[in-house]
Amino acid sequence: MTSYSLTYILLTYNQRDTVKAAVESALVQDVQPMEIVISDDCSSDGTFAEVEAAVSGYSGPHRVILNRNPENLGLAGNLAKVHDLSTGDIIVAAAGDDLSEPQRCQRILETFVEEAPLLLCSYAKVIDPAGQPVPGNFKTALFYGDEWSLKQVARSKSLYIGATGAWHRSLYEDFGQMAPGSYEDLVLGFRAALQGRVSLIKEELVSYRLGFGITSSDAYLADVTSYKKRRLSGFLAQKAVMHQREADAREFGLSDKSPVMRVLKKEQRKADLGISYYQDTPSAFAAKALRHPLLMLVIARAERRRARKFLVNCKPVG
């Protein structure tokens, strides 16, 4: 039987009000002694002081490592930092506004032993900023379905709820550090799918908080300006993700003629047009879209429809 060591990584940034509970949910994990690496990305609101207070006096079985970046590195940079600081075979991801059930790491360890994935995810309970349940179906991401193709993965912007993820450290090290602006669930999920080694635990092992930081949904934005800023940010992240996926596909050995690579190129063009839609004047957007008029229509119609829905359904913060 294969044995694994575990590292629980907790990435924090300006999450003072929620981070104490997030740290406590790491410390009470009912699993073999493991490493817990908590890395704060130069928060400005006292988050790291809350982290230090939460671990003060801890005498349990797990080894705790604290880090505070002297400058903000962004998600990709902070993730690279914790990989450098960690030693575990399995990396269990967590954020400073989410909570792990006490059995989460044990269930992850059991699944790695039984199925030997490179990446696994689980279901999540979705809660609002106040900790109350959010109604809705949150099992629509691609990896939560029974079947998916590599082309679908290449196109997808929702593979799994990132707060539920865990991966073998080789998945990160074999391909290298992620590009700035990209997200680990969309990059690491694609890397694991390239090799056909993705597993799902059909249990709610994480309480995922919607409405804080990068997890905010459109419904929690206060005004149209905030909405447009978020949409632009989303297209910039999409571009970074698709560029990283293309680099990973090449590293894996896919050629420019492969169907997957063609999908990635198209998604990059769509991201470029989305950026232009929110960043440029209408005439500049039209000029850039001349080479891809059908994609231009798709982007413009989709964004107008989404904006109308936001105006109808948005609820002010507070």
Based on the coordinates given, report the CATH architecture of the largest domain: Alpha-Beta Complex
User: Strand pairing plus helix content: what structural class?
Assistant: alpha/beta
Strand order of the largest sheet: 3-2-1-4-7-6-8-5
- Helix-residue proportion: 40-55%
Indicate the low-confidence ranges by residue numbers.
213-220
Quote the CATH topology of the largest domain: Spore Coat Polysaccharide Biosynthesis Protein SpsA, Chain A
Order of helices and strands: EHEHEHEEHEHEHHEHHHH
The percent range for strand residues is: 15-25%
Q: Main β-sheet: number of strands, strand sense, barrel status?
A: 8 strands, mixed
Number of strands: 8
Distance between the termini: 52 Å
Q: Looking at this structure, what is the CATH superfamily of the largest domain?
A: Spore Coat Polysaccharide Biosynthesis Protein SpsA, Chain A
- How many DSSP H or I helices? 11
Number of domains: 2
Identify the overall geometry.
Answer: globular
Mean pLDDT metric:
92
Pfam families: Glycos_transf_2
InterPro entries: Glyco_trans_2-like (IPR001173), Glycosyltransf_2 (IPR050834), Nucleotide-diphossugar_trans (IPR029044)
Protein name: Glycosyltransferase 2-like domain-containing protein
Keywords: Plasmid
